C-alpha cells in the first residue's frame, strides 16, 4: 500500500498494516501513531523529514525491519542515534543521497 499526502485518511483503521511507502509525505505523526505494526517503511524523498521525525518513527514504530530514508537531506547523525537505540528489530537501513 502506498500512502501520500493526498491519501492521509486512508491509514485510519489500518493498524494491522505492515508495509507502507510514505514518500514525500508532509505530515508524518498521524501515520506513525496509526500504524504501530509497520515492519517496512519507505520515506524516500521526504525533503522535510527532520531528526525530530526520525525520533518519532523510532519511538513509535519499533517493529520496523526495513527503513528507507534515502534522499532525506535534513536528517543528521542524531537520527542514526535514535534508530540505533530504539529500532532493535531493524535489519535494513537505506540512506542514499
Automatic annotation (TrEMBL):
Pfam families: LRR_6 (PF13516). GO terms for cellular component: cytoplasm. SMART domains: LRR_CC (SM00367). InterPro entries: F-box_LRR-repeat, Leu-rich_rpt, Leu-rich_rpt_Cys-con_subtyp, LRR_dom_sf. This is Uncharacterized protein. It comes from Drosophila navojoa (Fruit fly).
Amino acid at each position: 500500500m502506498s500512502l501520500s499526502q493526498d491519501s492521509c485518511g486512508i491509514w485510519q483503521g489500518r493498524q494491522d498494516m505492515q508495509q507502507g511507502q510514505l514518500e514525500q509525505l508532509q505530515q508524518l505523526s498521524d501515520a506513525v501513531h496509526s500504524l504501530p505494526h509497520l515492519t517496512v517503511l519507505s520515506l524516500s524523498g521526504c525533503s522535510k523529514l527532520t531528526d525530530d521525525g526520525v525520533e518519532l518513527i523510532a519511538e513509535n514504530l519499533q517493529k520496523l525491519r526495513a527503513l528507507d530514508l534515502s534522499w532525506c537531506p535534513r536528517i543528521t547523525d542524531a537520527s542514526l542515534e535514535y534508530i540505533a537505540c530504539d529500532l532493535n528489530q531493524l535489519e535494513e537501513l537505506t540512506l542514499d543521497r
